[in-house]
Amino acid sequence: xxxxxSGKTAIVTGGSRGVGKGICLALAKEGANVVINxxxxxxxxxxxxxxxxxMGSKAIAVKADLSDPQQCKHLIxxxxxxxxxxDILINNAGTWPKNWIVDIPLEEWNKTIDINLTxxxxxxxxFARKNIEKNRPGKILNVTSQAxxxxxxxxxxxxxxxxxxxxxxxxxxxxxxxxxxxxxNAIALGIVETDMTREALExxxxxxxxxxxxxxxxxxxxxxxxxxFLVSESASYITxxxxxxxxxxxxx
Length: 252
Hints:
Elements: E1 9-12, H1 18-29, E2 33-38, H2 42-55, E3 59-63, H3 69-83, E4 88-91, H4 106-133, E5 138-145, H5 147-150, H6 157-177, E6 182-189, H7 195-210, H8 220-230, E7 242-245
Parallel strand pairs: 1-2, 1-4, 2-3, 4-5, 5-6, 6-7
């Protein structure tokens, strides 16, 4: 099956580490140009850029704090300035703070919502405006979580709430964007081994494994392979869907 990424450009938020890194590399392997968004990990982003260029694809690294509306817009503008067109937006960036509900400071709540949900709105809005203006088709994929459906049992209620918002926003956006030939979907992740989850996994691996029917934690590559298909031309008849990639934690 040809996924037909040659000549296309994808923006990956939070692309310098973890799942985002895996997605950047998978898309580049298929021939896409990649915009690697990072905030604090410039060294990691530049290393991925070099790795992509060694594959024969093109990439740029763009610093943007996604809690800042202007920087969200800047990310989309910079991708288009360099590559001339932006065909794919993958909203992957996220934060996973831990606090029980009675202890969550308002600042932490607001930051979680800003990064995990509001940034998805802002980057998607900027992407949609440009593509609609140019009558250009596109694909948006939002990374959400099984916690959007199950809630949190481990002190991440604000994370779960933000990810539930992503699911509802994905459906609404898919309905509005369909007439503009912009597909909008989401992927719900379970437990993935990344820098963000490593400490929790090391402390309580048996608990997390017990929640996964397939009996193993996902790798970034596992998720990247699914994401790559979902933003390919081969998946063009899918829109408004949330695909479960949880090893069976989420079965619907």
